[in-house]
Write a sequence for this structure.
């Protein structure tokens, strides 16, 4: 109803419900005949809505059946147990494969490469120093990093897209949640240098990287 | 390594996200949130359970189909994450389950002497897809029922007695049952319908 329209939702609902009679009904019908667009729209909506509710013949499943359906997720949860990824390579500590990237300094920024994997997936991470945040009161600048990553399937399963959900947790706090590109890539900027857990999940499985230190230099 | 920007969305651990949108619920389910799964099943339970009856199937088959479709929904959640029409997927999936049951019942009927009414019934069931108008009607009812469940409890009771309940109670009786004066039923109904409209508009479904 337009602002200068005196008709109320109550009157229009009375009309649709057949509760508006006599003078009130005649007055409303006369008003509707003046082509009040707002009232016509509201009347149309009320008629459709009330009609849907009145003619709803849908049935709710019996409670025991609902309870069984609600339990389905819980019953399936063990299948989605955490698969903790192993560290294969860390350029900072020279872990795993022979490193040619230990403490690589590319231009003014320090970059670190880390590779984690499971039997199904690999996660390649590049951790790059970001511009530090200056703090007040003479406190040392807060060290921050940019994280670039790519999730890759192990050999023989490269068909289809590589969309995965990425969650970066610090304790119980989710500091980043998002989805990779179809090539399995993701980027997160300006993370505080700290210890995180990175969770990867997709249709064909997932993994968890525990204790991921997002730092570019040794303590 | 080429890196593309990803957005802060579908965060399963953010306490602020208790969305009733399908996408939000599915993301929470995928993160193992049992409450989100309960909400998703409750959101669509009437839609799924009602379709077998539209095909003329008995209670026992409707129960099996309901359970089977819920399982399929759970299995397909990752694929359905970006689906804008979960209700359509559910209608199609439930209908396919119904066709399978109808075919089975028809085969039993043809292969044996009629053992009981249910098996005899199998030959008379129609396995053709539901008419488009029936599908639209089911989706409208689903949308309305979902918005209805998001209303304050008092509004749910009032609109239930006024419109969903088929016994045609008088305003006086509705007022008595809800503990409000008969004269308040009309104004309360208008307020509740206004809230229902706002909920539907919020979901872009009005």
């Amino acid at each position: 109803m337009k602002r200068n329209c005196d008709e109320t939702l109550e009157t229009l609902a009375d009309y649709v419900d057949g509760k508006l009679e006599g003078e009130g009904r005649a007055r409303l019908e006369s008003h509707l005949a003046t082509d009040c667009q707002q009232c016509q729209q509201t009347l149309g909506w009320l008629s459709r809505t009330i009609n849907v509710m009145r003619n709803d013949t849908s049935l709710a499943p019996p409670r025991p059946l609902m309870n069984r359906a609600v339990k389905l997720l819980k019953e399936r949860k063990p299948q989605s147990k955490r698969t903790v990824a192993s560290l294969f390579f860390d350029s900072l500590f020279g872990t795993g494969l022979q490193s040619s990237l230990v403490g690589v300094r590319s231009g003014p920024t320090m970059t670190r490469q880390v590779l984690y994997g499971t039997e199904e997936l690999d996660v390649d991470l590049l951790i790059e120093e970001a511009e530090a945040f200056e703090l007040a009161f003479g406190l040392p600048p807060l060290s921050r990093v940019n994280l670039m990553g790519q999730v890759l399937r192990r050999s023989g399963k490269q068909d289809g897209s590589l969309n995965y959900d990425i969650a970066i947790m610090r304790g119980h706090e989710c500091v980043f949640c998002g989805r990779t590109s179809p090539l399995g890539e993701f980027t997160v900027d300006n993370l505080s240098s700290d210890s995180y857990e990175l969770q990867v999940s997709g249709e064909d499985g997932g993994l968890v990287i525990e204790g991921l230190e997002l730092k570019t230099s040794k303590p | 390594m080429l890196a593309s920007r990803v957005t802060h969305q579908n965060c399963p651990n953010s306490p602020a996200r208790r969305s009733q949108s399908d996408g939000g619920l599915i993301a929470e389910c995928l993160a193992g949130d049992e409450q989100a799964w309960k909400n998703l099943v409750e959101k669509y339970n009437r839609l799924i359970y009602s379709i077998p009856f539209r095909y003329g199937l008995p209670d026992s088959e409707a129960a099996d189909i309901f359970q089977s479709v819920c399982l399929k929904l759970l299995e397909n959640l990752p694929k359905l994450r970006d689906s804008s029409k979960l209700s359509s997927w559910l209608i199609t999936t439930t209908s396919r389950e119904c066709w399978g049951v109808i075919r089975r019942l028809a085969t039993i009927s043809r292969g044996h002497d009629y053992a009981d009414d249910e098996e005899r019934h199998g030959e008379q069931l129609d396995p053709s897809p539901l008419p488009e108008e029936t599908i639209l009607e089911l989706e409208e009812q689903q949308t309305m029922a979902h918005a209805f469940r998001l209303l304050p409890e008092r509004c749910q009771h009032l609109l239930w007695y006024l419109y969903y309940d088929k016994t045609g109670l008088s305003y006086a009786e509705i007022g008595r049952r809800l503990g409000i004066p008969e004269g308040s039923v009309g104004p309360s109904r208008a307020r509740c319908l206004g809230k229902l409209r706002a909920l539907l508009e919020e979901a872009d479904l009005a």
